[in-house]
């Protein structure tokens, strides 16, 4: 294996991803698994870390995400926005007094409302490698909309779209008639059109069931309809909060980012799709700013 200089780990609730970097910041190896913090006890994090990267060369290790939450390995306190690379790098939290094992702090916002993020800040820092957009969207269980001003995270807003989608589809009579969980283009576009009406969001949720019972839609399109309705509503609310933008970055897996890009096309903005490895670029920039790598 090539000479190693840094390990970065995005350690979430359900999953985690790890990157091994060479001294030039290149990615030597990448690994992922489903052993998020939900599967770790308070005394099992060290063992779990070894399971993930124990065979990699020992290197300074930087972690981000829910591993630094109150229910994670050790709590890394939030820092208030606006915050940039230097602020984040200055507030790394060592684990068990080890300077070679640290956690990236989360960010908080109290302007007009309370909000928090963990892990997404590292992805946003990574966006700067390709020139920063003014608005970044990070879809997921809890989607983040992030305004970037002068290379700093100025403000953000969280939408629990993915969590609500899963709850409605899997645990209510609305989703009980769905055939499968695949998001179909026809179903998605139908839900998107309902979201465009800009009203009756709750009523349009129940329509997922009623339309099937009345023969107006297919059970196989139910998941797509719910996804289109909820993502479309999120996009409308997000654009109302942050305003129309010329350039928007959508960060995440190809499939999910694709649905968001489809919904955002209505705004007329230039949509830039960014892969999940934005976090890797963020780890390297934070480590460099903190002096963990040369």
Bin the helical content.
25-40%
How many β strands by DSSP?
Answer: 15
The total tally of domains equals: 2
Along the chain, the helix and strand elements come as EEEHEEEHEEEEHEEEHHHHEHEH
List unreliable stretches of 5+ residues: none
CATH class of the largest domain reads Alpha Beta
Rg calculated over all Cα atoms: 20 Å
Q: What is the CATH homologous superfamily assignment of the largest domain?
A: 2-keto-3-deoxy-galactonokinase, substrate binding domain
| Subunit organisation of the chains | single chain
Second CATH tier, the architecture of the largest domain: 2-Layer Sandwich
Q: Work out the strand percent.
A: 15-25%
Q: What coarse outline follows from CA principal-axis ratios?
A: globular
Structural class: alpha/beta
The largest β sheet comes out as:
6 strands, mixed
Q: Ends: how far apart?
A: 20 Å
Task: Summarize this structure as a short list of keywords or feature phrases.
294 residues; alpha/beta; Nucleotidyltransferase, domain 5; 2 domains; 6-stranded mixed β-sheet; 9 helices; 15 strands; 35% helix; globular
């Amino acid at each position: 294996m090539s000479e190693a200089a840094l390990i970065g780990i995005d350690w979430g609730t359900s999953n985690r991803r790890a990157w091994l970097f060479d001294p030039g910041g290149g990615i030597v190896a990448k690994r992922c698994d489903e052993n998020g913090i939900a599967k770790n006890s308070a005394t099992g994090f060290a063992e779990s870390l070894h399971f993930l990267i124990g065979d990699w060369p020992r290197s300074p290790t930087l972690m981000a995400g829910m591993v630094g939450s109150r229910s994670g390995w050790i709590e890394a306190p939030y820092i208030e926005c606006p915050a940039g690379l230097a602020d984040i790098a200055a507030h790394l939290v060592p684990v068990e007094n080890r300077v070679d094992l640290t956690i990236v702090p989360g960010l908080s916002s109290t302007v007009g409302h309370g909000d928090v993020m963990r892990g997404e800040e590292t992805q946003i820092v990574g966006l700067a490698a390709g020139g920063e957009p003014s608005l970044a969207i990070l879809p997921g269980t809890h989607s983040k909309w992030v305004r970037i001003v002068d290379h700093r995270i100025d403000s953000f807003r969280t939408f629990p779209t993915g969590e609500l989608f899963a709850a409605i589809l899997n645990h209510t009579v609305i989703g009980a008639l769905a055939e499968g969980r695949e998001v179909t283009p026809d179903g998605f576009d139908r839900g998107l059109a309902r979201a465009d009406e800009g009203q009756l969001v709750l009523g349009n949720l129940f329509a997922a069931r009623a339309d099937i019972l009345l023969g107006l839609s297919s059970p196989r399109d139910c998941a797509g309809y719910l996804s289109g309705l909820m993502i479309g509503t999120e996009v409308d609310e997000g654009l109302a909060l942050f305003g129309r933008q010329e350039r928007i970055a959508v960060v995440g897996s190809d499939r999910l980012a694709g649905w968001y890009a489809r919904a955002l096309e209505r705004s007329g903005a230039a949509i830039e799709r960014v892969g999940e490895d934005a976090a890797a670029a963020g780890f390297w920039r934070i480590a460099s700013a903190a002096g963990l790598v040369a």
